[in-house]
Amino acid sequence: MRVPRIAVVGYQHAKFVTRRTIVECKDSRIGKQLIEVPSNVTLTVDGQDLKVKGPLGELALTYPKEILLQRDDSGLRVRKSIETRRANQMHGLFRTLTNNMVVGVSKGFEKRLQLVGVGYRATIEGKDIVLSLGFSHPVRMTIPDGLQVKVEDNTRIIVGGFDKSAIGQFAASIRKWRPPEPYKGKGVKYADEVIRRKEGKAGKKK
């Protein structure tokens, strides 16, 4: 980062004075929160590596040098090893990722999607989910290992598992085939997603 300099005039030759800017790094409110560890979850810390094992599965994460893990009787804390802007940014992020790992292997996560449109439907065939989304042929997607996918009433899809990131990625890949359009709302949307509708040409006529 280039340090700004201020020119001092009034001399035969201009002199430059370096102006230093002090950056204040505030602690992350999320990063300071304690992570509660259930009795059925086992944590293994090896340097910057963490392994979390529970009844639903096992996850691992490697932390950058700016982040430290501290285990005590009350739970797990994510702390900063140095005071920099980068460390402050990572503090809250890695606390959230760590908490997601603990919750995932103990309780699990799920993401729900809704198919909106005439003839839109979904079915499970073996290890694949088959989507009818108005194309000339059905869309077949292989369900990744570690995820469970259920279909209710042919139009509601539930993606579950212990890895929140993998759940979100697979749900997004399903939605990507037919994102909801803004006029009639047809497509694949998240169950809690609100589609901002647009007024069609017919509605603008007076």
Task: State the main characteristics.
disordered N terminus; 36% strand; 206 residues; alpha+beta; 3 helices; 14 strands; 3-stranded antiparallel beta sheet; elongated; 4-stranded antiparallel beta sheet
Walk me through what this model shows.
The chain has 206 residues and is an alpha+beta fold. The chain contains three helices and 14 strands. The strands form five sheets. The protein has a four-stranded antiparallel beta sheet with strand order 12-13-8-14, covered by helices on one side. The protein has a three-stranded antiparallel beta sheet with strand order 3-4-5, covered by helices on one side. Strand 6 and strand 7 (75-80) form a beta hairpin. The longest helix has 22 residues, at 85-106. The N and C termini lie far apart (58 Å). Residues 3-9 have low confidence and may be disordered. Keywords: Ribonucleoprotein, Ribosomal protein. Residues 37-108, 116-190 form the Large ribosomal subunit protein uL6 alpha-beta domain. InterPro entries: Ribosomal_uL6-like, Ribosomal_uL6-like_a/b-dom_sf, Ribosomal_uL6_a/b-dom, Ribosomal_uL6_bac-type, Ribosomal_uL6_CS. Belongs to the universal ribosomal protein uL6 family. This is Large ribosomal subunit protein uL6c isoform X2.
